[in-house]
Amino acid sequence: MIRREGDQVHVSGRLTMETATALFKSGLQPNGQAALVVDMSGVEAVDSAAVSLMLAWLREARHNGIGLTFSNIPDNLLSLAHLYGVAESLPLRGTGTAQR
Asked: Are the CB atoms for 36 and 9 separated by under 8 Å?
């Protein structure tokens, strides 16, 4: 589920192969903001599709001239991003131990 509040995008629930396409389509359409922060503190479950979703959102944001940052990434999602060698390509901020 995605909920927008100004320049904040709150993602919750499952980011898996079953949900990634719908989340991408409903996600980050330009709304006049120059920058968005995607808060993932409500994410409950992830698989490799979550990493793909983050990369797709990042590509789409750059295409639309929007700065994008991901915050509060769950440790298991961050581990997947490291496993696939893309963690350094993702603009991350947050309080997770693996993000420091």
From this structure: yes
Measure the N-to-C terminal CA separation of the chain; round to a whole number of Å. 27
Interval 46-75: pLDDT, tens: 999 999 999 999 999 999 899 999 999 999
- pTM, rounded to two decimals: 0.87
**Crossing angle for the helix pair 75-83 and 48-63, to the nearest 10 degrees:** 80
| 2-94 CATH pick, 3.30.750.24, 1.10.238.10, 2.40.50.140, 3.40.50.2300 | 3.30.750.24
Phi, psi of 20 (to 5 degrees): -60, -45
Residue 73 main-chain phi, psi, to 5 deg:
-70, 130
The length of the chain in residues reads 100
